[in-house]
Amino acid sequence: MRRSQLRGALEAIAHSDGSDVEGLAVLVQAIRPSRTERNRGENPRFLALLQLLEHQEDLRVGLSRYVKSYFGPKAIGRTLTDAGMPSGSFWHELRQRLTYKVLPFQPPPETLDHALINAFFQESDADWVSALPDDAVARLLELLGIDGIDARDRHGLLLQELFFAAKVLGLRIAGRAFDGEVLRMVPEHASFNSPFVRLEDELDRYLDQLRMGTVSRRADDPARTLVMAIIAECQEAIADAYRNTERLGITFRVNQHLMLMERKLKRLELVLGAIAPKADLDGRIALARLLKALVRISSGRTRVLGFIKDSTQVVAREITQHTGRKGEHYITSTKREHGHAAQRAGRRCHRGGGLRAEGMVRFHRGQPLLPCLPLQHELRDGLHRHLPAAPHARHQATRHDCRHHFTRAR
């Protein structure tokens, strides 16, 4: 957009009452970079916005009033705990993401999610927002008169939302960790010595102390340091579960649980980093990073191929490794062999896993298992890319081989 159109967006915001998201959506449209600019890592429109605000006091005051009026009462807790978190079911989540491409998700108007989804509605928005320099975003916050995180009172809405989000994430991580099938992957953690038990205990203690003001909001506070160390232990426990797949096998459901636990632990690290930023980090830069992260996590509901890749690569790796150990009985390379594999998978659907394996066979054969799904070719190519070669050289095949393993119910 031309600079005059950017000015027009700011003038419209200055005359609005700050009650709806329309002003923000128009402003984002005015500063959204073109594809060429994104590829170059440039955003001249955002720099033009800063220049206008620095030299035009009426536009600066109008935008500041709008931002404080519209975003002031918005709670960010649900965005931090729910946005970007897939459900426990692979197929349910896949259908939901495809549906959102046609019928966008619309959260309640009073939530921050509603503002982010309606203003940053393009999937590429998260990329260019993340690429904005931290100091440039911090400068925007300074021009609008918005304090950094370090200047926020612990009784204020922002800190209270961060405390609550950390609490919820800790509870959800522990709940997933003690699912029966997950514990089967790491039986050594099925006790009070589990890092997930200690995480819930120490996180609760740390958050209570923060709320009462008995500990500092410094990154090097001993209570926070202990929590971060336990989070690292939890991440190592998840890595142990993945390492045990060769010995114990893994299902799509367990893989979804582990993937969710990983994401929630990373989200918890994000929240704790916002509560207690590093001492050498400016408070406005810490807030700028949190805002950019919120845009990214709220824009992931329609990402399909990345979700499929994350959800299937571990199971696909286990299938291929088992194929290499068991021999060529499971390897198919011709259309006739693909058909026989699909028939065997169909007969074993009642034992679990067979239907999924048959679906993978049909994708590789190009049969319309899901005729209405426009991403069939992308899914098939994704499976080709993310099925690694079998470990034994005798069982290595070409890129177009389809490897299938029909696991017994364990």
Task: Reconstruct the topology from this structure.
Blueprint: H1 3-14, H2 22-31, H3 35-40, H4 44-55, H5 57-71, H6 77-82, H7 90-102, H8 112-119, H9 125-131, H10 134-143, H11 157-177, H12 180-185, H13 195-212, H14 222-243, H15 245-248, H16 252-275, H17 283-298, H18 305-326, E1 331-332, H19 335-347, H20 354-365, H21 376-386, E2 402-403
Antiparallel strand pairs: 1-2
Helix pairs in contact: 1-2, 1-5, 4-5, 4-10, 9-17, 10-17, 11-13, 11-16, 13-14, 14-16, 16-17, 16-18, 18-21, 19-20
Number of helices: 21
Question: Level of helix content?
Answer: 55-70%
Shape: globular
Mean of residue pLDDT values: 77
Sketch the topology as an H/E string, one letter per element: HHHHHHHHHHHHHHHHHHEHHHE
Total number of strands: 2
Largest sheet: 2 strands, antiparallel
- Order of strands, main sheet, comes to 1-2
Radius of gyration in whole Å, from Cα?
Answer: 25 Å
Structural class: mainly alpha
Low-confidence stretches are: 320-330, 348-353, 363-410
Tell me the β content.
under 5%
- For the record, the count of structural domains works out to 3
Distance between the termini: 59 Å
